[in-house]
Amino acid sequence: METILEVKGLSGGYIWNRPIIREIDFSVGPGEMIGLIGLNGAGKSTTIKHILGLLAPHEGSVRILGREAGQSAETYRSSFAYVPESPELYEELTIREHLRMTSMAYGLDSAQFEQKSAVLAGQFDMTNKLDSFPQTLSKGMRQKVMIMNAFLTEPPLYIIDEPFLGLDPLGIRSLLELMVERKRQGASFLISSHILSTLETYCDRFIVLHRGRIAAQGALSNLRSQVPGSGPESTLDELFYTLVKGGAS
Asked: Which end of the chain is less crowded, N or C, counting CB atoms within 10 A of the terminal residue's CB?
Protein backbone atom coordinates (compact mmCIF):
# COMPACT_ATOMS: atom_id res chain seq x y z
CA MET A 1 0.00 0.00 0.00
CA GLU A 2 1.44 3.36 -1.05
CA THR A 3 2.52 5.75 1.69
CA ILE A 4 0.87 9.16 1.37
CA LEU A 5 3.33 11.17 3.47
CA GLU A 6 6.84 10.05 4.42
CA VAL A 7 9.07 12.15 6.66
CA LYS A 8 12.51 10.56 6.96
CA GLY A 9 15.48 11.73 9.04
CA LEU A 10 14.18 15.30 8.96
CA SER A 11 16.26 17.95 10.68
CA GLY A 12 15.73 21.64 10.00
CA GLY A 13 14.82 25.12 11.09
CA TYR A 14 14.90 28.74 10.02
CA ILE A 15 18.69 29.25 10.19
CA TRP A 16 21.10 26.88 8.48
CA ASN A 17 23.00 24.62 10.89
CA ARG A 18 20.74 25.65 13.79
CA PRO A 19 18.01 23.01 13.61
CA ILE A 20 14.81 23.25 15.64
CA ILE A 21 13.69 19.72 14.78
CA ARG A 22 16.04 16.73 14.67
CA GLU A 23 15.79 13.27 13.14
CA ILE A 24 12.03 13.29 12.66
CA ASP A 25 10.73 10.01 11.20
CA PHE A 26 7.10 9.15 10.57
CA SER A 27 4.67 8.26 7.81
CA VAL A 28 0.98 8.63 7.07
CA GLY A 29 -0.80 5.90 5.17
CA PRO A 30 -3.97 6.03 3.06
CA GLY A 31 -7.04 6.75 5.14
CA GLU A 32 -5.07 7.42 8.32
CA MET A 33 -5.66 10.30 10.72
CA ILE A 34 -2.49 11.18 12.63
CA GLY A 35 -2.33 13.57 15.59
CA LEU A 36 0.80 15.71 15.91
CA ILE A 37 1.07 16.94 19.50
CA GLY A 38 3.57 18.83 21.64
CA LEU A 39 4.07 21.84 23.86
CA ASN A 40 4.48 25.31 22.40
CA GLY A 41 7.93 25.41 20.78
CA ALA A 42 8.20 21.63 20.46
CA GLY A 43 8.64 21.85 16.67
CA LYS A 44 5.13 21.17 15.37
CA SER A 45 4.88 24.27 13.17
CA THR A 46 8.46 23.82 11.93
CA THR A 47 7.66 20.24 10.95
CA ILE A 48 4.52 21.33 9.14
CA LYS A 49 6.37 24.09 7.26
CA HIS A 50 8.85 21.53 5.99
CA ILE A 51 5.98 19.34 4.79
CA LEU A 52 4.38 22.32 3.05
CA GLY A 53 7.66 23.02 1.27
CA LEU A 54 8.10 26.42 2.93
CA LEU A 55 11.36 25.32 4.57
CA ALA A 56 14.11 23.21 3.02
CA PRO A 57 15.43 20.36 5.18
CA HIS A 58 18.93 20.64 6.62
CA GLU A 59 18.98 16.85 6.52
CA GLY A 60 16.51 14.17 5.57
CA SER A 61 13.53 14.33 3.25
CA VAL A 62 9.78 14.87 3.00
CA ARG A 63 7.80 13.03 0.32
CA ILE A 64 4.11 13.11 -0.57
CA LEU A 65 3.13 10.23 -2.87
CA GLY A 66 6.84 9.61 -3.40
CA ARG A 67 7.63 13.17 -4.56
CA GLU A 68 9.71 15.85 -2.90
CA ALA A 69 8.77 19.53 -3.13
CA GLY A 70 11.83 20.36 -5.21
CA GLN A 71 11.06 17.78 -7.87
CA SER A 72 7.75 19.24 -9.05
CA ALA A 73 6.42 22.04 -6.89
CA GLU A 74 3.02 22.28 -8.62
CA THR A 75 2.35 18.54 -8.49
CA TYR A 76 3.61 18.33 -4.91
CA ARG A 77 1.40 21.16 -3.67
CA SER A 78 -1.68 19.83 -5.44
CA SER A 79 -1.33 16.65 -3.37
CA PHE A 80 -2.45 18.33 -0.13
CA ALA A 81 -4.76 20.94 1.33
CA TYR A 82 -3.73 23.05 4.30
CA VAL A 83 -5.69 24.78 7.06
CA PRO A 84 -3.40 27.18 8.99
CA GLU A 85 -3.78 28.11 12.64
CA SER A 86 -4.44 31.77 11.81
CA PRO A 87 -6.86 32.64 8.98
CA GLU A 88 -5.15 34.35 6.05
CA LEU A 89 -7.60 35.92 3.63
CA TYR A 90 -7.55 38.58 0.92
CA GLU A 91 -9.48 41.55 2.29
CA GLU A 92 -10.54 42.70 -1.21
CA LEU A 93 -12.18 39.37 -2.13
CA THR A 94 -15.56 38.10 -0.96
CA ILE A 95 -15.86 34.63 0.55
CA ARG A 96 -17.40 33.35 -2.69
CA GLU A 97 -14.46 34.77 -4.65
CA HIS A 98 -12.00 33.03 -2.30
CA LEU A 99 -13.73 29.74 -2.97
CA ARG A 100 -13.86 30.36 -6.71
CA MET A 101 -10.14 31.17 -6.79
CA THR A 102 -9.39 27.89 -5.00
CA SER A 103 -11.60 25.96 -7.42
CA MET A 104 -9.77 27.47 -10.38
CA ALA A 105 -6.37 26.63 -8.89
CA TYR A 106 -7.39 22.98 -8.45
CA GLY A 107 -9.17 22.66 -11.80
CA LEU A 108 -12.80 22.37 -10.66
CA ASP A 109 -15.40 23.22 -13.31
CA SER A 110 -18.27 25.65 -12.67
CA ALA A 111 -20.77 22.93 -11.81
CA GLN A 112 -18.42 21.33 -9.30
CA PHE A 113 -17.67 24.70 -7.75
CA GLU A 114 -21.33 25.65 -7.36
CA GLN A 115 -22.29 22.28 -5.89
CA LYS A 116 -19.36 21.92 -3.49
CA SER A 117 -19.33 25.52 -2.29
CA ALA A 118 -23.08 25.43 -1.60
CA VAL A 119 -22.77 22.23 0.45
CA LEU A 120 -19.83 23.54 2.48
CA ALA A 121 -21.50 26.90 3.12
CA GLY A 122 -24.54 25.04 4.42
CA GLN A 123 -22.48 22.76 6.63
CA PHE A 124 -20.70 25.68 8.27
CA ASP A 125 -23.71 28.03 8.44
CA MET A 126 -22.03 30.46 6.05
CA THR A 127 -24.55 30.60 3.20
CA ASN A 128 -25.61 34.15 4.00
CA LYS A 129 -21.95 35.24 4.26
CA LEU A 130 -20.71 34.14 0.83
CA ASP A 131 -20.85 37.66 -0.60
CA SER A 132 -19.33 39.28 2.49
CA PHE A 133 -15.76 40.54 2.78
CA PRO A 134 -13.37 39.08 5.40
CA GLN A 135 -13.19 42.28 7.46
CA THR A 136 -16.89 41.90 8.29
CA LEU A 137 -16.42 38.38 9.72
CA SER A 138 -15.49 37.19 13.20
CA LYS A 139 -12.28 35.21 13.67
CA GLY A 140 -14.29 32.01 13.88
CA MET A 141 -16.04 32.76 10.60
CA ARG A 142 -12.72 33.54 8.96
CA GLN A 143 -11.45 30.17 10.15
CA LYS A 144 -14.51 28.54 8.61
CA VAL A 145 -13.59 30.14 5.29
CA MET A 146 -10.11 28.58 5.47
CA ILE A 147 -11.66 25.19 6.20
CA MET A 148 -14.17 25.54 3.37
CA ASN A 149 -11.37 26.39 0.94
CA ALA A 150 -9.38 23.33 2.00
CA PHE A 151 -12.32 20.94 1.75
CA LEU A 152 -13.53 22.35 -1.56
CA THR A 153 -10.81 20.16 -3.05
CA GLU A 154 -10.33 16.43 -2.52
CA PRO A 155 -6.55 15.83 -2.29
CA PRO A 156 -5.06 12.66 -0.78
CA LEU A 157 -3.70 14.57 2.24
CA TYR A 158 -5.08 17.26 4.55
CA ILE A 159 -2.69 19.13 6.85
CA ILE A 160 -4.60 20.92 9.60
CA ASP A 161 -2.97 23.14 12.23
CA GLU A 162 -5.05 23.93 15.35
CA PRO A 163 -8.34 23.77 13.45
CA PHE A 164 -10.67 24.23 16.42
CA LEU A 165 -9.40 27.64 17.61
CA GLY A 166 -12.20 30.19 17.43
CA LEU A 167 -14.79 27.78 16.03
CA ASP A 168 -18.23 27.65 17.60
CA PRO A 169 -19.70 24.25 18.59
CA LEU A 170 -21.50 23.92 15.25
CA GLY A 171 -18.28 24.65 13.38
CA ILE A 172 -16.32 22.08 15.40
CA ARG A 173 -18.94 19.41 14.83
CA SER A 174 -19.19 20.20 11.12
CA LEU A 175 -15.42 19.99 10.73
CA LEU A 176 -15.16 16.68 12.58
CA GLU A 177 -18.00 15.18 10.53
CA LEU A 178 -16.35 16.36 7.32
CA MET A 179 -13.00 14.89 8.35
CA VAL A 180 -14.60 11.54 9.16
CA GLU A 181 -16.41 11.55 5.81
CA ARG A 182 -13.26 12.33 3.80
CA LYS A 183 -11.28 9.76 5.82
CA ARG A 184 -13.92 7.15 4.98
CA GLN A 185 -13.38 8.03 1.32
CA GLY A 186 -9.64 7.33 1.69
CA ALA A 187 -8.14 10.74 2.48
CA SER A 188 -5.32 11.04 5.02
CA PHE A 189 -4.92 13.66 7.74
CA LEU A 190 -2.09 15.17 9.77
CA ILE A 191 -3.63 17.26 12.55
CA SER A 192 -1.86 19.42 15.09
CA SER A 193 -3.97 20.40 18.10
CA HIS A 194 -3.78 20.96 21.85
CA ILE A 195 -7.27 19.49 22.33
CA LEU A 196 -6.00 16.02 23.14
CA SER A 197 -9.37 14.51 24.06
CA THR A 198 -10.65 15.19 20.54
CA LEU A 199 -7.52 13.78 18.93
CA GLU A 200 -7.77 10.69 21.11
CA THR A 201 -11.31 10.10 19.85
CA TYR A 202 -10.64 10.61 16.14
CA CYS A 203 -6.98 9.82 15.39
CA ASP A 204 -5.52 6.41 14.57
CA ARG A 205 -1.98 7.21 15.69
CA PHE A 206 -0.11 9.98 17.48
CA ILE A 207 3.30 11.66 17.20
CA VAL A 208 4.52 13.34 20.38
CA LEU A 209 7.14 16.02 19.74
CA HIS A 210 9.25 17.28 22.62
CA ARG A 211 12.16 19.70 22.31
CA GLY A 212 12.44 19.12 18.57
CA ARG A 213 12.50 15.32 18.68
CA ILE A 214 9.92 12.57 18.64
CA ALA A 215 9.39 11.44 22.22
CA ALA A 216 6.95 8.68 21.28
CA GLN A 217 4.65 7.68 18.46
CA GLY A 218 2.07 5.07 17.63
CA ALA A 219 -1.50 4.10 18.46
CA LEU A 220 -2.74 4.77 21.98
CA SER A 221 -1.90 1.21 23.02
CA ASN A 222 1.65 1.67 21.70
CA LEU A 223 2.07 4.90 23.63
CA ARG A 224 0.94 3.18 26.80
CA SER A 225 3.66 0.57 26.34
CA GLN A 226 6.28 3.31 25.84
CA VAL A 227 5.37 5.36 28.92
CA PRO A 228 6.52 4.00 32.29
CA GLY A 229 3.76 3.70 34.86
CA SER A 230 0.89 3.92 32.38
CA GLY A 231 -2.01 1.48 32.43
CA PRO A 232 -4.59 0.13 29.99
CA GLU A 233 -6.94 3.02 30.81
CA SER A 234 -4.37 5.84 30.55
CA THR A 235 -5.66 8.69 28.40
CA LEU A 236 -3.71 10.54 25.74
CA ASP A 237 -3.64 13.58 28.02
CA GLU A 238 -2.09 11.55 30.86
CA LEU A 239 0.46 9.91 28.58
CA PHE A 240 1.42 13.24 27.06
CA TYR A 241 1.89 14.83 30.49
CA THR A 242 4.24 12.04 31.55
CA LEU A 243 6.26 12.24 28.35
CA VAL A 244 6.90 15.96 28.57
CA LYS A 245 7.25 16.24 32.35
CA GLY A 246 10.25 14.09 33.14
CA GLY A 247 9.24 10.94 31.31
CA ALA A 248 10.65 9.98 27.91
CA SER A 249 12.60 12.76 26.19
From this structure: N
